[in-house]
Design brief:
The structure is a single chain. By secondary structure, this protein is an alpha+beta fold. The chain is globular, with a radius of gyration of 15 Å. Strands 1, 2, 3, 4, 5, 6 and 7 form a seven-stranded mixed β-sheet that branches.
């Protein structure tokens, strides 16, 4: 079993926070880091675009992981920072990200989601009723 402290994963995500304005849009103000079941660490940032075509930081980190042909996430975190010098905040994955994590590999329902320096939850706990529906027949 891979052990990675919450602080080290938070630090890995915070290291790639580099907010960048393009017109009225902001890229990179949320970052994510994950560690796989093999111990590889992947990071990514959000891209906020018009018309909903952007994606969350978790998606970017997961895309890097899948590009490397890995699929099982042991632990994941997302962080946000307002302006330079503001404190970093851990943010929980949105509903879309929770479902995205689940669909990458069935074992990911047991992914440990970092919710703070000393607080985690499994994806299963954050995404109740995650099994496919049962037929009424």
């Amino acid at each position: 079993m891979i052990v990675q402290s919450n602080d080290s994963l938070i630090d890995a995500a915070a290291a790639v926070l580099h907010p960048h304005h393009v017109g009225d849009r902001l890229f990179g103000d949320v970052a994510s880091a994950l560690i796989t079941d093999t111990g590889s660490v992947y990071v990514g940032v959000c891209i906020d675009t018009a018309s909903g075509t952007g994606f969350c930081a978790e998606h970017a980190a997961i895309a890097a992981m899948v590009t490397a042909r890995e699929y099982k996430i042991a632990k994941i975190v997302a962080v946000w920072q307002g302006a330079d010098g503001d404190p970093v905040h851990v943010v929980p994955p949105c509903g879309r990200c929770r479902e995205f994590i689940r669909q990458i590999d069935p074992a990911n329902v047991d992914t440990e989601v970092v919710l703070g320096r000393h607080r985690t939850s499994t994806l299963r706990e954050l995404l109740p009723e995650n099994d496919w529906p049962v037929s009424l027949d």
